[in-house]
Design brief:
This is Glycerophosphoryl diester phosphodiesterase membrane domain-containing protein. The chain is an all-alpha fold. It contains ten helices and no strands. The protein is globular, with a radius of gyration of 20 Å.
Amino acid sequence: MPAPLTSAGALIKDSWQLFVKTWDTTVRYSAWLIIPAVLTLADLAIPGNQESLIVLSAVVQIAVAIAVAIWVSIVLYQVTLALDAGSKVTEKTTADWKAFVLPMVLIGALQGLATLGALLLFVLPGIYVGVRLGFSQLTLFSKGLKGRAALAESWTLTKNRFWAVFWRQIAAGFVFAVLIMIVTTAAVLLVGLVAGGSKLGVLVDSKSLSPVAGGILGLVQSIIQAAFIPLIVIFQVKLYRALDRTRA
């Protein structure tokens, strides 16, 4: 039988401590996720009668959002694994990020297809498969496994430990969601006051805001999300390392 996993509380605490300690490093990478929101705000400068420009801008935004998301995912995994191991982050830490693009996309596609296939049967099988394969991409960055080998490693890693993993992810997700919600609500209220909308109106009726204020509001929300994404990645790495240490 596998050894007992680190408790949910300990994992959350350790993740928070590493997040605070290394935030100035990780945020340099996660901050790039703000770019799509900036591009959306820039759309306001396009005249409403320029439909071709609007369509072109939408295509560019989607392409940029996908590219940025892939790059940030890769470098955050690389940086977080290094920080969790106590290593110093340098340019060499992420120098080979290009080599992980196709393998990570392939693993993500296989993982998504497997989860979707299970979801077609019922919700619970989909959740089960999603949790069991949830560490596939991390095995790519920590052990160099690709494709089906990465999925198989994640499946083996979580064998007989579905509920232990699921509970820890639910607990952390709840705590982090509450934290992000509190910060986001405070920021949204502040933006609403500055923009001239009422506090309640900002939260429940975005139509009370001007397009510019709405764009700024979206940017603020994007900034907050980018600021906390490293915390989520750190927890996932902590949980992965705990699973690997206590595997049967």
